[in-house]
Amino acid sequence: MTGTVLFDPLVPLWLLGALGVAVAAASALALWRGLSGWALRGLAGFVVLAALAQPTWQQEERAALSDIVIMVEDATASQRLAERAATTEAAAEELAAEIESRPDTELRRVTVPDAEGDEGTLLMTALSEALAKEPRDRVAGVFLLSDGRLHDVERLPDLTAPMHLLMTGRESDWDRRLVVTNAPAFAILDEEITLTLRIEDEGAAPESARTAPLDISVDGEAPQRFEVPIGRDVELPITLSHAGRNVIRFSVPEAKGELTDRNNAALVQINGVRDRLRVLLVSGQPHPGTRTWRNLLKSDSSVDLVHFTILRPPEKQDGVPVSELSLIAFPTRELFLEKVDDFDLIIFDRYKRRGILPSIYLDNVANYVREGGAVLVAAGPDYASADSLYRSPLSEVIPAAPTARVVEEGFRPAVTGLGERHPVTQGLPAPEGWGRWLRQIEVTPASGDVVMQGTEERPLLVLDRVGEGRIALLASDQAWLWSRGYEGGGPQLELLRRLSHWMMEEPELEEEALTAEATGQRMRIARRTLGDEVGAVTITTPSGEEEAIDLEKVSPGRFEALYEGPEIGLYRLEQGDQTAVIGLGPAAPREFVQTIASGAALEPAIDAVRGGILRLEEGMPAIRTVREGRPAAGRGWVGITPREAYQTLDVRQMPLLPAWAVLLLASALIVGAWLREGRR
Q1: Nearest residue to 71 (alpha-carbon basis) of 97, 102, 96
Q2: Which of 125, 377, 568, 625 is 20 to 30 A from 177 via CA?
Q3: pLDDT beyond 80 at 585
Q4: 508 part of a folded domain
Q5: For residues 285 and 287, what is the distance between their CA atoms, to the nearest angstrom?
Q6: Are residues 303 and 349 in the same domain?
Q7: Mean per-residue pLDDT over the chain, rounded
Q8: What is the count of structural domains for the chain?
């Protein structure tokens, strides 16, 4: 029960003050003039002023409220290293017993689990959510049981109560980690790039260790080991061997006594791209399709095009001196003997044998294909003639032989059943709207895959692999009609672009391929094939466990499946003779980037509320009661601040000057003053 005097003036305060001054001045004037009743009249005036102030006596019936202490227990992955989990559990139970034994004190326990994804330890987020559920004026203290490695310190709530960090971990802990400080996302094939990494020892690391072994593995192959210095940036030169995704894994073997090996590895995924695609286009004679090929190849800024058109064949004798011609001599020897291997693709556009390219040169082109080169033959009527390119050493690699028949009639190109599964022709716009071509060379396939057909289902586009290289035969010179929009046109640019890139072995156009794309901990597995069915994919997890997963057919020649990775790291996929590797998440999760216990991140916030940071390995600190604003931590002890909060149960008010009492008292004083002055 408490009592206080309250005032609720009936007039404004300034007016009440002015009246008070007037009463005092009148009393002083009466005293100066020697009036005997001045004191009684002054008292009467002040009684009236007191009544205008309306004083009230208020009594409250209060119930004391208990203090609240919040204990936040860090149960994230880094807290499961060494003996930290057991230390935290024992300290939490002892602290809970101590707080609950204190009178008028309640405990709120909050556990912080691993965050979703790779967000790390969200200690302050959990504390803010806990404080939002409690009245701030009852919170007497906050205890954090953690290793101090949190990742949301910017979400620190406003606190008026002391906050303490009871830190797990030992001063003798040490850990070794691998950090990749510089790694490009893309790199040019066959050009050297530099990756920068660093091996760091943290905590009480042994001083004798100056170097550490480093294992480097590319695409899951057997690793190579190098000895690198500790604590210094190391630059590693690397040359990518293939286009597409290259997965490079760096790892350091676990050292004796270190805290964990979860941060001893790093995954780097680099996409290999070609710098410039070098293309040699040889046109046998000018025709409308020549411009189509030229526009296609020149529209791509990554293509270096060398184009030769034979405008003046040897049999043309017009008597004009060679020195007066504006043409250059065809550098046949240089192109087809000395520098043929410099080209990624050679296109013969309506070329026929005219004695310009001797058989030895064409034989060299055939060897170029076998050793990994690419040749595209765009055939015209010349291909069916006696001077056909097929009647040269190139016949050993060309997949279809001419029958000497040229079909001069309109037809609509169509994709074959096999072509619906081949990446060159799969998914092209609907063929119902394609315009007609007007000429086709009849050929008989000897090998390869027929992906497009023309009139009477005759082969139109044949693709084949020869040795390490690739070759394609387009049995028509009418593709340019699509680019002119004849009868609606067709996907000419897309078809020729895919065809060119398939021949140059771009990974996304491989007809037999196993790929995977990662989104967080989930991967989408895709198997492309020319067959009708595929078997299960065997997945090898980072820990070495194997799991088989079936694929579902989503389109002709394409099978997919979704897989949720159980752990972070490098996964290896195998299906038949196809393999792939992919990394899910970082090699070292955020929880294990820094594992040595430290209160540095929380020190400014704890100092601001006069709390303390103590190591649990030194023993459980005693709990004391401290006044607000005083230091709340010392050697071996931490404090909480009682809030003395209460709940008001009942309020009663009683006027100190009732109206009848004011009237009676004021009247008595005025009458007394009158009688005293009259008697004088």
Answers
A1: 96
A2: 125
A3: no
A4: no
A5: 6
A6: yes
A7: 85
A8: 5
